[in-house]
Fold each of these.
Amino acid sequence: MKFRARPRPESPGFQMTPMIDVVFLLLCFFVTSQLFAQWETEIDITLPTARTGQLPQRLPGEIILNLYEDGKVVINRREVAPAELGVMLQRLAGLFPGQPVLLRADQATPYEHVIAVLDLCRQADIWNISFATGVPEER
């Protein structure tokens, strides 16, 4: 009896289409997450509220200065000494005139700490400063 040999199925090889789909989805995810990572805000800061407060339009390249009630300044999750902050602001103003700065001060921060940061901005010739406020809760 003679049996016919069945042809062996060929290996499909490396499929590029699913790999391209996965890489494209990863690219979309990381681009989106990077956008939200740039909107760095410190969770420990309780902003003062204002009835006219609203979510600001985000400006490209905006620097966010988080100011705690003890006078500590945090930028990009890194604590910055006042002298280092002054040098950094002067470099930014020299490279990018009109550099926008968002000051997020805790509601319990003494006025003197806010004025110290504003003075450093003025010494660096930074004039485009915004103050972050929260929206009061409606009851």
Amino acid sequence: MKKILIMGLPGSGKTTLAKELVPMLKAKWVNNDKVRKDSNDWDFSEEGRVRQAKRMSEIAEKYKQDGNYVVCDFICPTPKARELFNADFIIWVDTIKKGKYDDTNAMFVKPEKFDFHVTSRDAKVWATKIAEKIK
């Protein structure tokens, strides 16, 4: 089983892709906004994002240890956040040049390593290709 990270700028289509991919893999889904809401943690500083990456990783790791594929969609803007999350499979949703938040745009570092590069907004098509590669 794998811990799958769907990462990219806000508004790039991460959640839309996750909605398509999760049923194809019969995966558990960990959504960034839901986890932040449940934790009541809306700190988007570097420290807050590190904390969120650790939180997302811990939740996903529990599902993975129970024998599930786990799809996690969140920005994961820095190499440090990605390292802390420690994904088995990284999907970079690279469909926009600029997100809706200037602070996120400023800190977002394009990933050097990823397993799948999504370059357009056809989530059904991409999810099918990704599921085939993962299985």
Amino acid sequence: MTQAVLANRTAAVLRLVASSPAPLGLSEIARESAIPKATCIRILRALVDQELLDVDPETRRYRVSFALIALMADRVHADGSIELLRRELVRLGSTTHETAGIDLFIGHDVVVVLQIEGPQLISQTSKPVPRRLPALRTSTGKAFLTWHHDPGSAEVLTAPLTAAERDRLDEELTTNRRRGYAVAFQELDPEAAAIAAPVMVDDTMVCAVWIGGPSYRMTPTAMPELAAHVVESADRLAILLRTGRVSLDDLPSTPLREVS
């Protein structure tokens, strides 16, 4: 095998794993990439050694590593799309006076990939980015359960719940679909609250945008007004992601979408 062929196959494997909403096993990767298993396993081991992929020691399934996520978040040029996403978070944080961020759903976890600190940090400390969060106790996790159609992941995430807890979650997800956003109040942190909205591109949820802050300020009464800004930001991010090259300053100024 020539170096060029090996390089192309390595790129194909990395692209395949990075684009999958759930971790992939060796057989799936070999089948989807049309690369022999023996070659695939050598490529996968090299990517894990280089900290570009993570492998679950029990399931032997592969996913993008924290190192690669951090590299993408921190090293994109100032005129790239990451910077445009960051600018939208600055706008959202300035409007709501809370910390704002963008999350992805990787494996069965929520991963914070971009964050702009608000005037008052949750728990008074800055949190590392990227970082993983449990889905069931976060606003973005509930948003992904509401709008990200992955029955396998949903089944795994809800497995620990009792029948009564599942019923309450189902009611909450129904409410989320009606109002257009998800919330978490004093769940992951007893002193914190958060609101998340789905960013939809071609009817597919690609990420979530959120704000978070102290629960004494982000009260249930205050949440609907704050949520309007989060939903608006999700719409703006969707336009940015669909077009690829858009100045947020050029987006039309429209009234906030009404949310309940």
